[in-house]
Amino acid sequence: MFWTLEEEKKGWIQEIYQKVERKYRQVRERSKDKIPAMAINGVHDDRSDTSKEWGIDNGLNWWTNGFFAGILWQLYQAGKDERYAEIARISEEKMDACFLAYYGLHHDVGFMWLPTAVADYRLTGNLDSRRRGLLAANLLAGRFNPAGKFIRAWNELDGAKERNRGWAIIDCMFNIPLLYWASEELDDPRYRQIAMLHADTAMRYFIRENGSVRHIIEFDAESGNYLRSHGGQGYGHGSSWTRGQTWAIYGFALSYLHTGKKEYLDTAVRVADYFKGRLNAECLVPIDFDQPAEPAYEDSTAAAIAACGFLELGEILKERGKGYFETGLRLFSVLTEKRCDFSEDTDGILQKCSGSYHGTSDREVNFVYADYYYVEALLRLMDKRFLIF
Ligand code: GLY
User: Fold this and answer.
1) How far is it, in rounded angstroms, from Cα 182 to Cα 177?
2) 233 CA: nearest ligand 1 atom
């Protein structure tokens, strides 16, 4: 790690790690047969339970299904306790049913298989995991639209009001690392080429003049021409959904790490500067920077992803990166002091996570992916960073 913490801060980080570790030793046993998306009243739900109302699209195919295993692999590599690996593999194996079902799989295969199969392969050399990762990479590459040079996000939903075959979303910056990995693994540039064409399109169409980021861009799927943007999960059209900003900050930083293309780093820095300029004094992150002051809805997920993104920028920029490192540390510290539940009797860690501004059932709840980014930030601060994306 380029930036070192003061001794007192190091001790504090170590204490937090102990709390997370103690909690997760309980959580992993309680949730070992689940693929959780969130903790409801302190108890993980289970997206692999096919008897539930969520069906395959919001069940086994749910975009966050890799994150529980992601937490377990992160803790495994930090502490080398085999039990984490054993339980992480349960999710990975259950998710094989998604490949067989095929229908409904979307661009979020990166979010799903990087923290499961690819993490497993990277840490243990498991060849079944490598196969899963490569299969997922091929599914993602198959969503590329050559005319518009973008990866299609979602599938057509039955009865959807809008056709979405030409839609791309900023979140995909976290799926394309699967393609960078596949290129390296197979010594075949095609996957990286697709990822970079998509990232170039994202730089051109998603980033506004002021450094803020749009959520959804619609292209004409035949000609590839830009058509319009859509508001997505933020407050409204033209607003700044904070999690979208963070997918861009950390996502472009990752594309820079994987390719060395300087424009990606410049883009990450531009969005990070915009984000920092809009943080309030408390450093608690709203769902959307342009939402009304009241109700003051928050999204701790955005804060946790931002913490990782800022810490990554601090690392990449070295001497020039002090301010980014400090912002990452501050975001992490505020979450730790104000939004964490370290109780061993509950399954979730981060509180006040929000899926979207206008959703009601997913506003200010707990999400497993928020917990993942919180744990990743913690391990970064301990210099035990394992790059999953
Ligand atoms: N990738 C979907 C979200 O951030 O909600």
Assistant:
1) 9
2) 5
**Annotation marks residue 108 as catalytic:** yes
CB atoms within 10 A of CB 54: 16
Strand partners, 230: 216
Give catalytic status of residue 341 as yes or no.
no
Determine the pLDDT at residue 87: 98
Ligand 1 pocket test, candidate residues 111, 171, 215, 358, most atoms within 8 A of CB: 171
169 forms beta bridges with 216
Identity of the amino acid at 340: C
3-state secondary structure 59-107: CCCCCCCCHHHHHHHHHHHHHCCHHHHHHHHHHHHHCHHHHHHCCCCCC
Instruction: Please give the average per-residue pLDDT across 277-285, as a whole number.
Output: 97
Q: What is the pLDDT of residues 42-101, one digit of tens each?
A: 999 999 998 887 777 789 999 999 999 999 999 999 999 999 999 999 999 999 999 998
Question: 350 forms bridges with which residues in the sheet?
Answer: 340
On the CB side of 315, CA atoms within 13 Å amount to: 20
Residue 159: pLDDT band with limits 50, 70, 90: low
To the nearest 5 percent, what fractions of the chain are helix, strand and coil? 55, 10, 40
Both tokens of residue 279? 């943080």
**Contacts within 8 Å (CB) and 24+ apart, 9-13:** 13/378, 13/381, 13/382
Work out whether strand 43-44 and strand 39-40 pair parallel, antiparallel, or are unpaired. Answer: antiparallel
Alpha carbon 122 to chain centroid, angstroms: 19
Identity of residue 132: R
Assess contact for 262 and 256: CB atoms under 8 A.
yes
Which of 45, 108, 288, 371 is labelled catalytic? Answer: 108
- Does pTM surpass 0.85? yes
User: Of residues 45, 120, 171, 371, which has the active-site annotation?
Assistant: 171
Residue found by looking up tokens 């601090």 in the block: 314
Q: Which of 320, 322, 376, 323 is nearest to 349 (CA)?
A: 376
